[in-house]
């Protein structure tokens, strides 16, 4: 491989960018494609599909054979709030392949006994997330019901274009949240990306069922599209 391309690939991986090393098998030429780069025709469709699925492999487009080598950052899930839902969600998300962190400054909730084998940080999100900031391959799940804890990571996740942003709360709770985030300078389109009430509409009642609904929605958001997430209105 061209050393220059290898350096660019390694740099992209360090910066948690989604990239594809595209190889023309007939000529042996390589090309690095970042997520969002324009690629036309059948090849563009194959690249989009590969970003969505995360699967590498050979394919044919417009009479030529290519090998698509996909490099996607490991998806993360940041759960704000060490509550009952989080106790169920964290291990399920870990089994689904997410790098999970639970953050809650309330030490009465954030105890190792309640979160065995889970990365738990008993600190404010502003401090807890300094070493690994929220990025486009992060799902942000806010479930504390406390704006003093939830609002900062929600704002940060929206600005970072996290692939999923969800918040627990009733319609009235979310309406008040919308007012606060609007006052904080976020646009209607940005705020519209928050999934609230959180989770897929499966009629979930128990914390365990709500955790299933959240995880289903997070996975759907991760796999939905290879392109940047479009703005959508909040649930009614």
TrEMBL record:
It comes from the Bacteria. InterPro entries: MoCofactor_Util/Proc, XdhC_Rossmann_dom. Residues 77-218 form the XdhC Rossmann domain. This is Predicted sulfurylase large subunit (Molybdopterin cytosine dinucleotide biosynthesis). It comes from Hoeflea halophila.
């Amino acid at each position: 491989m061209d050393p220059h391309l290898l350096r660019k690939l390694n740099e992209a991986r360090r910066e948690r960018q989604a990239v594809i090393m595209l190889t023309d098998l007939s000529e042996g030429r390589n090309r690095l494609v970042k997520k969002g780069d324009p690629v036309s025709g059948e090849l563009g469709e194959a690249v989009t599909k590969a970003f969505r699925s995360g699967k590498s492999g050979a394919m044919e487009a417009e009479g030529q054979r290519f090998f698509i080598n996909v490099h996607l950052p490991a998806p993360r899930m940041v759960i704000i709030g060490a509550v009952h839902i989080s106790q169920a969600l964290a291990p399920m998300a870990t089994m689904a392949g997410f790098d999970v962190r639970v953050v809650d400054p309330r030490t009465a909730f954030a105890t190792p006994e309640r979160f065995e084998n889970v990365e738990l940080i008993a600190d404010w999100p502003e401090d807890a997330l300094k070493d690994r900031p929220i990025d486009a391959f992060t799902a942000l799940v806010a479930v504390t019901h406390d704006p003093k804890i939830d609002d900062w990571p929600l704002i940060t996740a929206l600005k970072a274009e996290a692939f999923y942003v969800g918040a627990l709360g009733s319609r009235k709770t979310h309406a008040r949240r919308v007012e606060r985030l609007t006052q904080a300078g976020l646009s209607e389109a940005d705020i519209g990306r928050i999934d609230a009430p959180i989770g897929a509409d499966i009629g979930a009642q128990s914390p365990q069922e709500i955790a299933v609904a959240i995880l289903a929605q997070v996975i759907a958001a991760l796999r939905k599209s290879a392109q940047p997430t479009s703005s959508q209105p909040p649930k009614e």
